Each structure stands twice: as structure tokens, then as C-alpha cells.
Amino acid sequence: MKYIHIVSFDVPYPPDYGGIVAVHKLIELFNSRGIKVILHVFIYNNKIVYPKLEMLCYKVIKYKRKTGFISNASMKP
């Protein structure tokens, strides 16, 4: 069985702007070819991961994305 990891810095569903449309199309393409997608998605602004996206992917791993000035004022990269 083949697996692929995809990292998305926003929830790719619904596909409503350029970069997210590309990520969503990739997920659909790999899924149609029998390649299982493990999606790593960063969530911010109280966005939700829709059940349709979870059905397309083998696994969805969610990370909280920090925003604002304080999150950029770190000594860590």
C-alpha cells in the first residue's frame, strides 16, 4: 500500500482560493489512484475540518497554528 504525506497551512476544504484548490485537487488525485493521503493541516481562526475532507484522506492530523505578533517574537525558528 502506498502512502503520501501532504502538509497544508490552511484547511483545504472547501477549496475557495488558489493554493488550497491545488492541495484539494492533489488529495483527490492521489485518492483516485489508490494512494492513501495522510494530511497534516494547520488550523487557525476557528476553522473546522469538514467530514468530506476526512473521508478523502486516510488520516488527518491537526495542528493549532499560532498567529499574531507574539507568536512571531520567538527565538526558535
Describe the structure.
The protein is α/β, with parallel strands linked by helices and about 80 residues long. Helix content is about 30%, strand content about 25%. It contains three helices and three strands. It has a three-stranded parallel β-sheet. Helix 1 links the parallel strand 1 and strand 2 (about 35-45). The mean pLDDT is about 85.
Helices and strands, with pairings:
Elements: E1 3-8, H1 18-32, E2 36-43, H2 51-56, E3 59-64, H3 69-72
Parallel strand pairs: 1-2, 2-3
The largest beta-sheet arranges its strands as 1-2-3
Tally of individual helices: 3
Order of helices and strands: EHEHEH
Biggest pleated-sheet summary: 3 strands, parallel
Secondary structure: helix percent: 25-40%
Unreliably modeled segments: none
Radius of gyration: 14 Å
- Shape, please? elongated
Task: Using brief descriptors, characterize the structure shown.
single chain; 77 residues; alpha/beta
Quick structural summary:
The chain is of the alpha/beta class and 77 residues long. Helix content is 32%, strand content 26%.
